[in-house]
Design brief:
Blueprint lengths: L49 H31 L5 E15 L2 E13 L6 E13 L2 E8 L2 E3 L4 E14 L2 H13 L3 E15 L2 E16 L8 E2 L5 E2 L3
Membrane topology: Single-pass membrane protein
Keywords: Membrane, Transmembrane, Transmembrane helix
GO cellular component, one term: membrane
Length: about 240
């Protein structure tokens, strides 16, 4: 009988097989489950897509373009200081003025003064429409021929508006008769609409400019059929 060594440690576990067993799936028998590689670096960021980069660059370029354009326009308006032209009504007279049986007739001769207050921009009037009103009712209108105004320039323009037997309602007939009897005059309104081109070098800008001359009294009191504007020249208001 073989004696046991008192200092020997008892064997534990299972015997290692020999020869070694080959795993059927190519991995060690006790290998842990494998996972895809993950970068846990906190400074790592995913790369943006080319489309996102392109859109970001286009947005940046468009923003810069708008800022530059706004700066150019700001400097332009500071240097040039464009101003609207002014219109003065120098005279307004009426002849052959009659109101009978709801029919109104008359000839109005008006004198206008167009002024360009700009020292660096010239003006071109493509068309001017003058309309005569009484108590918001349109009586007559006429168009003026195109003309130019240089810097700090002014020009007088004469025009004639005619009404031949146009119909007016009883309210207007009574109002005109009351004014002629009480004031010795009749107040008319004038509207001037102009299509103006502002010119400075290669710069061109077209816009409509509308001014009003309201409550212009013309002395046609009583049975008079003609009269002139009461008062001095006035500036038409925008």
């Amino acid at each position: 009988m073989q004696q046991q060594d008192p200092n020997a440690r008892p064997a534990t576990g299972y015997p290692y097989p020999y020869p070694p067993q080959q795993p059927a799936n190519g991995y060690p028998p006790n290998a842990a489950t494998a996972y895809p590689y993950q970068n846990h670096n906190p400074h790592y960021a995913p790369q943006p897509s080319p489309r996102a980069v392109l859109l970001r660059r286009l947005f940046t370029a468009f923003t810069v373009f708008l800022l530059i354009l706004g700066l150019i326009l700001f400097i332009f308006f500071i240097v040039v200081r464009p101003q609207l032209p002014t219109v003065y009504l120098n005279s307004l007279s009426v002849s052959n003025f009659t109101v009978s049986d709801n029919r109104l007739a008359g000839n109005w001769d008006l004198g206008l003064q167009f002024q360009n207050p700009n020292s660096k921009m010239s003006l071109h009037y493509d068309g001017v429409l003058c309309t005569l009103y009484y108590d918001r009712a349109s009586l007559s209108e006429t168009r003026l021929q195109p003309f130019d105004l240089g810097t700090k320039d002014q020009t007088p323009i004469n025009a004639t508006l005619s009404v031949s037997g146009t119909y007016v309602d009883n309210r207007l007939v009574d109002s005109i008769g009351k004014e002629r009897g009480e004031k010795g005059s009749v107040e008319f309104d004038l509207r001037v609409v102009s299509l103006v081109t502002f010119r400075y070098g290669v710069y061109r800008r077209r816009r409509y400019v509308t001014v009003f001359c309201d409550d212009v009294a013309v002395g046609v009191g009583g049975n008079s059929s003609s009269g002139n504007m009461v008062g001095s020249a006035r500036r038409c208001k925008p």
